[in-house]
MarR family transcriptional regulator (Tritonibacter litoralis), 149 residues
Amino acid sequence: MTIPDPHTVEAWTSLFRASQALLDGVESGLKAHGLPQLSWYDALLEIEKAGADGIRPFELKERLLLPQYGTSRLLDRVAKAGLITREDVETDGRGQIVRLTEKGRDTRKAMWPIYAGALITLIQSRISPSELAELNRLLHKITPARPKA
């Protein structure tokens, strides 16, 4: 059995802790303002990017990198809140198109200042622009490419 170098284990632990701390920071800011979870923001943004034509749930799943059941549950909760509509596709008996409602657009817009503020507080204010560029470069080396929108 191959054992990872101690620096590899330390890097993994640091990445995991940093990720959790950043997510917790964003989530607590959203909660303090009575706004939905960050996963809702990501879904609403991707649906908004799709425009008036909407997006199929399987396409959204690929963009969000969630398992199918996670995407379905998320869409159920977001639809129940009135932030999206789901319409059947006439040519596909099982298919749906998801579209953003005006309330969904307003919610996503209300979430952004909190999310952006957390990014500034938790990342941008703590490391220099050159350190941020280096961090991005290094993370891109170990991060799988996302599907094109």
In short: Residues 30-142 form a domain with the Arc Repressor Mutant, subunit A fold (CATH 1.10.10.10).
